[in-house]
Structures are given as structure tokens and as C-alpha cells.
Amino acid sequence: MRKLAVISFVFILAACSTNKNIPEGRYLLDSYQIKHDTKNATADLEDFVRQQPNTSLPLLGKVRLGIYNMAGQDTSKWINRTIQKLGQAPVLYSASQTIMSQNQLKKQLNNQGYLNAEADTILRVKGKKISVTYNLKGGIPYRVRNYTHQIGDTAMARIMGKIPIEPLLKKGDMFDMGMLEEERLRINTIMRNVGYSTFSKEYVYFRADTTLNSHEVDLYLDIYPNKDSLPYPRYKLNNITIISGINSVDNISGSGGQINTNRWFYRNADTTDYYGTKIIRGRNKFLRNSAVLRNNYLKKGAYYSDYNITRTYEAYTNMEAIKQVNITTQPSPEDSTHLLDATIILLPANAHWFKAGLDGTNTAGDIGIAPSVSYQHQNLFNGSEQLSIKLKGAYEFIAGDKSGDVMNSNFYEYGIETGLTFPQFLFPWLKKSWREQPSASTRFTVGLNNQHRQEYTRQFFNLGVNYSWNTYKNRLRHGLDLLDVNYIRMPWVSDYFQENYLDSTNNVLLRESYSDKLVARTAYTVTLVNGRRFTGLYPTYSLRMSVEVAGALPRLATTIGGAKENEFGEKMILGVAYAEYVKGSVDYAHTFYFSKKHSMAYHLGLGLAQPYGNSGILPFERRFFSGGANSVRGWSTRSLGPGSYKRQGSSDFVNQAGDMKLELSIENRMKVTDLFEFAQFIDAGNIWTLIDYEEQPGGQFNFKSFYKEIGVSYGIGLRLDLSFLLLRFDAGMKAYDPGRDQSDRFILFKPRLNNMAWHFGIGYPF
């Protein structure tokens, strides 16, 4: 009844007269639309409409306007002022604002190459409301016929002739002012990376010949001459000074980054000439000279370069031991041939970092808590090495009957995770330039986790060596798990669990899930993201590919030294069976921007894994799952598939796993305010097994019929954009359920609560 009352109240507000408080002779701006015939227009034309209606959502706009109209006109009363603040004042139509919008829209079309554009407005009045239609006719656009450089400065002209970067403007492109601005930025970037530190894009200009009578333009780029008629100065770097370990910004005086040498830090400062770079280190011996120099791209004798300064900023900022970086350049006192001195100041972060946390969990209605305590040392060996130690625990309260079912008993777990990260490659035989590249890191990890249930005790031990680095202007991100060893064992099993689960069934999936196993894997992952956006509406994409192989090292060891076999015919190393499999996956996501408030994204995910040799089935932790906040959102986490398999009871996680995965999603995103965003989505996908397991009937992949087993769901979402964090709430409804009988799978028009799943996530799903 309360929900019904709230809904009724909202509709009463929406039904309130929106014409109230409209002065005589004025009109409420009800809506507007833009009609145009410019297929090649790329800018967000809505940005140039000066006067917007109350809100982009009609119902919400009426509700807020209704709240405002509920208030009295006497603003001396606090109640009226309070109600008005909760609502939204009516937007009254302004003829002058409309004319300005019309002119701005026409000008924008001109800027995009429609030099003969025409703009008009159509007004529709209904009672006290008015709607505005902006009618735009672009005509035939002007396009670039020829684009050439005619730079008077001979040194700059010679440089531009040697630069291999293609110009943004080519024959046939629209005569777009936005692209001309991008071309100016490109020239500015080039010049500021080859020594012209005082260069500005304002020095670049274009001459356009539009008198060809064919809607074509001959375009010429030139650079204004220097004010003193001399060539623009081209600078080289001279003295490089790095001041490492200042513990306070108070030690920096003046906007030029000059150092106050009277501070205590410099009383016993150590100044070293290290490979041509002066390094000043104070009492705290903050960073080793090698670590400081390794991340510096500014070299004596090299031409000034914005790119190298940016790379230096990024390299130092990525070092967790550094809190802040300041880089300044100034004319060198030795300047006779345009020399610059550079000063780099490195401020240390706190070396020790502690964190305590308490997380709440809710798994299918089962409530749990997970406390943790973490410690991190961010500069262990004075080279920004990171040591991390995390103690964690968890306790889950299982609801319902606790009559002996393995899934119906409370359990707890605890463990420790340790890691040591070095900001370079630690690997023999690598050349120094590759080993010490700033984006490289090496991480060693060791962990132990104990899981205690009423039926058994289970232990997980892991050990790993991981390398990561970036290439191709940081667009390609690489990760190599050179060695990732996971050892799973069950040191204790209750008689009840042994007799009723492990001994009384031939379920190979259940046996695999609860058997001692050694998984020694090597994996490589690469992620590609697109580069710089040329406009605010430029699409974004990401491509992630990974491949992993398990069992190579144990296979080599058992081949050389021989191996015993267990009762299932699996070879063992150190008394434990090891897994062998290959696994690969591909994920692609692409986002299109129709406007600053409207975008559409789609996602494609593929995965395939094949056990071989010593394994007849993949380890449970390495199998594929479907359903969840980042998967097919009409199903709860890990509850879809495989294939047309019918779920057995509420807890059937062992059987709902597969060797192959396919997912496709499309999502329409609409920004309502800076804080809120609505989304509508359609997800499709499933998992399959490559082997016909008796325990998973209907789960095997069949090329002739797999399309009949693709689950489909649809739903809506609300996103809360906090700028630094995006919180996501999604509700998905099943539309096609392959887990039902063939004749009852299409349930699009049978919406029920038990066909819906609710999800909470952080960040976009793709």
C-alpha cells in the first residue's frame, strides 16, 4: 500500500498544471528539436541550443515543475522557499535566446564545412506552452581539394618534411574548422618535441582558397614569422638536476621551482654527478641513484621535448614511493646557443601504509563478513620496491536447513597474501635498456588460504612470478605470468562427507572439485586500447586477449624422472596429480558517442579451454562461468548453462561450469544529469562443455544446435557517477532461457520476479 501511495503521489504531481505561475503573454518552453540534412555533421548540435526545457526526462520534469508550483508565491515564507528549491522553476520561452541558438547552429554548420548553410525556426504554440523546431539546411558541403605546407621558416619546413606522421587533413575531407584546430595542435606537438619549447599553436594559421566554384578548397598551412624577424629559437638541454627526497612542499619556494637551500634537508646534502646528471640526495637517502636515473628521459645535449617531459612525469608518478613530481626548465647561464637547464624535484610519499577493512557479503541470501588487515612498504630497498602483506578472513552464515548438506553449513576461512614488486624486469640475460624500462615491473607472490567447513578442511597454496610492461605509447599493456603455481589439498574430510559425497558417487566434476591438485600454469595477456580522441565524440575501444598453458613444467619433470599414477590414471609429482590444459580468451568492447549525453556500447567475449594429457576435465577454478553483473545479467552469478543443462536445486555450482564461453552485449547509455545515468541493455550468451559429461546432460557444444542454447536477457540500469567512481545498479530479466524445455524457452512476454536478477557493480560492465 505504501508503494502504491508513493506512485500515486508522483502521478498527482505529474498531473499538476504546468501552466501555473506562467505570466500573461509568456510561454513555457515545453520542448525543442533539431532537424537537419547534414549527414556528415559530427558535433553535438544540442550544445549550441542556448535555452533548454526544464529537464530531458518528461515525467521527471513535470514532477519537479509540479513541486515548484505547489509553493506559494510569497517567498518571504520559508516553507515556500524550501518547496521551490526542491522543485524547478518553469523555463519561459525567450525569443532572443532562440535567435542566438539559431545563429550558433548555423555558425557550427559553417565550421563543419557547410558554408552555405541556412537556419530557421518553427514555433508551435499550444495554450501556455511553446515548442521550438530548429530547421537546418546545410546544402552541399565544401571539401579539401589540396592541402600543402608553405612554411617560411626554413628550419621548420625541413623538419616538417622529415616527420613521418601523416597530416589529419586529406583530399576529400570536409572543410571542418574542428579538424583545422586538430591540425594546428599536431603541428604544435611536433615543434615542441623537436626543441621549440616556446612554440604555440597560435603561431599556426591556414589560408583557404574557396573561389574554385566547385565546393572545393585549396588549403595552405603557414607559420607566422617571429616578432624580431629571426628564426624561432630551438633549444637543447644543458644541465639536468634531480633533487630527490624533499619531505615537504615548503622546501620549494617560488613558482619556478627554485630550492630553499637553507632548509635542514640540504645541510648534509649529497650531490653526485651520475652519468652526466646531477643528483642531490638528502639525509634520508630516499632513492638509489640508479632508480632515479632509470626513470628520467631528459638527457643533456638532447633537444627539448614535451613528450620526454611527459614520459618523465609518468615514469616517476608510477613509482609508489613518490608522492609528487615537479619539473621546470629555465635558460642556462651558459646559454650562447639556446640552452635550457632542467630541474626535477621528487617528493616522497609515506613509506608505510596500513589498511583495515570489513566487507559484507551476500551470496544467494547467505550473509557473511570478511575482515582484512593490510600493510605495505612502498620503498623497501630505496628503489620503489613494494612489499605487501595482507591477512584476511571470512565467515559465512548459511541460511535454511543444516541437516548435513555440504551447502547448508556455516563455514569460515582465513589466509595470508604476500607480494614483492620491483619496478623493473628481474630476469637474466636481458639487456639493460629493456630490463630498466620505466613501465616494467616484476612481482613475486606467495599466499596461503585455509577453508574450514563442518565436512572438511581445504587449503590453497599459491606462488607466482609475474611481469608487466607497456608498449606502443602505453596503448599495449602486457602481462606475463611466467610461473603461477596453485596447490589445493584437503588435509581432513569428515566420515559423512567421504561416504555420502566422495565415495558414493561417480560424479567426475564433484571429484575434480574436491581432489588434491597441482596447477602450474604460464599465461600471457595483452590489452590494446585506442589512442587520443580527436573530438569529444570519438569512439573508444579495447581488445584483450589471453592464453595460458598448464602442466608443462610438471610434465617435463615427470618425463625426466618418471612418475607414479593414482587410482584414476593421473600422473603425480611429489604425490599430487597435476593438471594439463590450454585456455584462451578474447574480449572486445566498443563505445560510440552520439552526443555528450548519449552513447552506445557493445561487447563480444569468447573463451575456449581444452584439457589434455593428465587431465580429463579442467580444474574447477579455471573453468568458464556465465551469469552475473559483468555477464548475462538476466541470471545471477554463475547460474547460466552449460548449454541446455537444467539446474538441479538452488545450489548446483559444481555442474554449472564449462570449457567454452560466448557472450554478446549491447547497452544504450543516457546521461540524465552529471550524477545520474540510465541504461538499457540486451545480453546474450552461454557456456558449453567440449566433452559429453554424464553429470551435465545437454551441456556439450554442438555446432548445429548451439544457437538454440544462447540465453538472452534484457534490462535497465541506474549508474551513479561520482567522477572518481561509478556505481552501477542493474536489473535483468530473462527473455530466452535455454535451461527450460524446448517449447517453453521463449519467456519474453512472461515477466516474473523469479526470472529477474539484481546486480550491483563498480564501473561499467564493459
From TrEMBL:
Gene3D superfamilies: membrane protein fhac: a member of the omp85/tpsb transporter family
Compartments, as annotated in UniProt: Membrane
Residues passing through the membrane, by range: none
Domain Bacterial surface antigen (D15): from-to ranges: 581-766
Domain of life: Bacteria
Main localization, broad class: membrane
Alphabetical keyword list: Cell outer membrane, Membrane, Signal, Transmembrane
InterPro entries according to UniProt: Bac_surfAg_D15, D15-like
Name of the protein in its database record: BamA/TamA family outer membrane protein
Organism expressing this protein natively: Dysgonomonas termitidis
